């Protein structure tokens, strides 16, 4: 006897409509958001923790108005180098010669201004021209001759250090005129008055906070438009408020010291320009494409040689800017200037989230990485820790940052 199966009247529930599936979907989105931003978010947390730690260990001296100003003045040239270095690392390259280029450009400026008596701005222009020429030299060998950047810039490190010795004739030159010294040691204050503080510095701080909030909101709207995971709106507001509070505290401390450093204005302009260059221009997208997948970038029509060439020209230009700032800060040019600067710039880029394999990194991340190094160095100096121990700590921090990047990549590959 054949049994007849009657169709069930119970309709199956679509998987996506079940509460469990919805919860799983939301959890997946949150997990994706966390994983995508873990590295960048982590460095902000690390910066806050390191600042808090050294503030306690130095009995608050680290956060005093005078010391915050000193941090800006002492490490500004490393942050300038980090901007160019992170762009190179994103593109899959590296530059080991920037310390020697800093020394060479400062030496050229010193010879023209101090020895030959030319106006201070002639020295600045000459330094920038030399930096661009050095970048073009490196770019030619890397982009058109096909020699790896590691070898080209290693040779450049030796070549341009030797040229520095020849230009200076193995002696130091000083002092620069007062106008040249203002590049790294000048301040803008008293423009808007203020009782015991500089109101102009606070105004600039408020503008920076407003710009950060508007930029963050526009980025959030764009992500939502393209259906990308974003943090909840209350969390977004909390982040903006927290960053705004930190920026205003920083501005408040500067306002109670000597006002707004000119070198900080130079650095802020560079960060804004290169932030836009990397995120909003065709050139920036091509740099990421080359670093992420060179073959795919070439097949998609990217002029790889041209982009590589201009990346090194840009690095030479920024090394020259750092050379002017450093020579202005030290009020002279020395044969050993810029020693080990390349390692500090590379460390700032990697600690700030750049990937060893290229294709990943941001200008802002490099700035945060540089600030982490600056705060650690300054804090250990205030504590009287010897230079050898400082080098050990910096090396360990760099190793941990790179290991964290490798761990994240392996975990992402396992998840797939």
TrEMBL record:
Give the span(s) annotated as Disordered: 1-21
Q: Where are the transmembrane segments?
A: 41-62, 68-89, 96-114, 120-140, 147-168, 199-221, 233-252, 258-277, 307-326, 346-375
Keywords, in A-Z order: Cell inner membrane, Cell membrane, Membrane, Sugar transport, Transmembrane, Transmembrane helix, Transport
Q: Name one GO molecular function term.
A: transmembrane transporter activity
Localization, per the record, is: Cell membrane
Q: Which GO terms describe its cellular component?
A: plasma membrane
Please report the record's description of how this protein sits within the membrane.
Multi-pass membrane protein
Q: Where is the composition biased (Polar residues)?
A: 1-11
Keyword ATP-binding applies: no
Major subcellular location class: membrane
List each coiled-coil range.
Answer: none
User: CDD domains in the record, alphabetically?
Assistant: TM_PBP1_transp_AraH_like
Reply yes or no: does the keyword Repeat apply.
no
NCBIfam families on file: GguB
What does the record give as the function of this protein?
Answer: Part of the binding-protein-dependent transport system for D-xylose. Probably responsible for the translocation of the substrate across the membrane.
Recorded protein name is Xylose transport system permease protein XylH
């Amino acid at each position: 006897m054949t049994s007849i199966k009657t169709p069930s009247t119970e309709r199956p529930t679509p998987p996506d409509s079940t509460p469990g599936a919805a919860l799983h979907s939301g959890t997946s989105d949150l997990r994706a958001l966390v994983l995508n931003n873990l590295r960048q978010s982590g460095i902000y947390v690390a910066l806050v923790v390191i600042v808090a730690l050294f503030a306690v260990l130095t009995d608050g001296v680290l956060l005093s108005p005078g010391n915050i100003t000193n941090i800006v003045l002492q490490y500004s040239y490393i942050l300038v180098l980090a901007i160019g270095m992170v762009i190179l690392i994103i593109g899959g390259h590296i530059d080991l010669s920037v310390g020697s280029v800093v020394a060479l450009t400062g030496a050229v400026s010193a010879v023209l201004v101090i020895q030959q008596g030319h106006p201070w701005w002639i020295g600045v222009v000459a330094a920038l021209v030399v930096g661009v020429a050095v970048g073009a030299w490196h770019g030619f060998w890397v982009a058109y001759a096909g020699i790896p950047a590691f070898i080209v810039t290693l040779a450049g490190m030796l070549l341009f250090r030797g040229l520095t010795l020849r230009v200076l004739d193995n002696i130091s030159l000083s002092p620069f005129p007062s106008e040249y010294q203002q590049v790294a040691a000048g301040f803008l204050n008293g423009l808007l008055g203020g009782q015991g503080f500089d109101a102009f510095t606070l105004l600039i701080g408020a503008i920076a906070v407003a710009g950060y909030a508007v930029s963050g909101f526009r980025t959030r709207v764009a992500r939502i438009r393209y259906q990308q995971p974003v943090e909840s709106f209350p969390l977004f507001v909390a982040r903006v408020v927290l960053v705004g509070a930190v920026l205003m505290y920083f501005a408040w401390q500067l306002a109670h010291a000597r006002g707004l450093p000119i070198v900080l204005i130079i650095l802020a302009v560079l960060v804004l320009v290169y932030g836009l260059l990397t995120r909003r221009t065709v050139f920036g997208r091509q740099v990421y494409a080359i670093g992420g997948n060179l073959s795919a970038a070439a097949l998609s029509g990217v002029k790889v040689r041209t982009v590589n060439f201009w990346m090194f020209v840009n690095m030479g230009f920024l090394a020259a800017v750092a050379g002017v700032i450093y020579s202005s800060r030290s009020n002279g040019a020395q044969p050993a200037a810029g020693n080990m600067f390349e390692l500090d710039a590379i460390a700032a880029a990697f600690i700030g989230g750049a990937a060893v394999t290229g294709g990943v990194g941001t200008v802002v991340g490099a700035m945060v990485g540089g600030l982490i190094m600056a705060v650690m160095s300054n804090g250990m100096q205030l504590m009287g820790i010897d230079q050898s121990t400082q080098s050990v700590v910096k090396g360990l921090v760099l190793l941990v940052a790179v290991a964290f990047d490798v761990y994240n990549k392996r975990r992402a590959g396992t998840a797939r």
